[in-house]
Amino acid sequence: LNKPEWYLTQVLMWIGNHAKFLDDKIQPILDKAGSSVNAGLEFSRALVMLILEKLAVDIPCLLYDDTLFCHLVDEVLLFERELYSVHGYLSSFPSCMHILSEESCFQRWLTVEKKFALQKMDSMLSSEAAWISQYKDITDVDEMKVPDCAETFMTLLLVITDRYKNLPTASRKLQFLGLQKELVDDFRIRLTQVMKEESRASLGFRYCAILNAVNYIATVLADWADNV
């Protein structure tokens, strides 16, 4: 259960190792018979079906172990990325995202994603470099004087989007978007709390850094507004 990468990697290797044989030997036979079947894709689809069966058995066993469940999700997402980008798998075919979208598994994924995101926010705001820009010495890069915590937070949101963007239904994607909105509001509250502590020194370093953070986040969210 703690090594889903073993069978996921094995399947990717089988697909890669058989591609030439399927293209050179099997596909011409299908073409000659007037079939529209793509040998390589059908081979991939059959192997993915085996993975779906395996996941359906494994997931209930690790649903409440955060570490194992997170590891499984991470490995499945890596597998899916390679399956589509390297092996040309079709989005209309069955995929692991359908298993991750099933109610009990999906709700657990959302819960765990939120838990780890909040932990990340705790650590980024308690860091000594939280209010310092990592580009502070490069003036042409750092026009917005973005503090490290704001940049890390927006990267966190971007990574979450990258993880859920291939979910098969819009309703599931919207639930993840809801999580992101919660995180933005949580971050806003945290910034407000720090700002109140700094309100006596409104021209101080940290107060200005908070204003820069807010400006940067608002600007990036506006840029993302065109992303359906």
TrEMBL record:
GO biological process: endoplasmic reticulum to Golgi vesicle-mediated transport; regulation of ER to Golgi vesicle-mediated transport; retrograde vesicle-mediated transport, Golgi to endoplasmic reticulum
Gene Ontology CC terms, in alphabetical order: Dsl1/NZR complex
Record Pfam families: RINT1_TIP1
InterPro entries on file: RINT1_Tip20 (IPR007528)
Protein name, entry field: RINT1 protein
Native species: Zapornia atra (Henderson crake)
